[in-house]
């Protein structure tokens, strides 16, 4: 298995995987290609086996004047079902974390996941993530 940063040529397969993960209505391959080329605050990592993408992880880089350190947040992670339970997700996370530490001197990683997503929580806890007592809140923009 190969873990690497996503490239513009990965956009069509990333689009398919995003639909598998998030359902229909997501960005088309051209929008994904544009984001991969121009979105400096997001880094997308992929796993590949035998020339086929098997998973992806999206990492957002966050900086605030209130803090001295850059933070990285895992915002999306998906591994195709046939490649689960063999270390793929852990390997993508390890690669992404190492990359962000080395390239951006990131010292803190964050992520959000559902209370009821026990498989994901088990994975994250095995990688050293822990609940920090923060409460995640959101609001949709109303026109």
Keywords for this structure?
143 residues; alpha+beta; Aminopeptidase; 5-stranded mixed β-sheet; globular
Structural description of this entry:
With 143 residues, the chain is α+β, with helices and mostly antiparallel strands. The chain has helices at 11-22, 29-38, 88-104, 118-126; strands at residues 2-5, 42-49, 52-62, 71-79, 108-111. It has one domain (2-126): Aminopeptidase. 34% of the residues lie in helices and 25% in strands. Strands 1-2-3-4-5 form a 5-stranded mixed β-sheet, with helices on both faces. Helix 1 packs across helix 2 (29-38). The mean pLDDT is 93.
Give me the side-by-side strand order of the main sheet: 1-2-3-4-5
Number of helices: 4
Radius of gyration: 15 Å
CATH fold call: Aminopeptidase
- What is the end-to-end distance? 46 Å
Calculate the mean pLDDT score and round it: 93
Number of domains: 1
CATH homologous superfamily assignment: Gcn5-related N-acetyltransferase (GNAT)
How many β-strands, per DSSP?
5
Main beta sheet strand tally, sense and closure:
5 strands, mixed
Specify the overall morphology: globular
Report low-confidence residues grouped into runs of 5 or more. none
What's the helix-strand series? EHHEEEHEH
* Percent of residues in beta strands: 25-35%
Supply the CATH architecture.
3-Layer(aba) Sandwich
Helical content (DSSP H or I, runs of 4+): 25-40%
CATH structural class: Alpha Beta
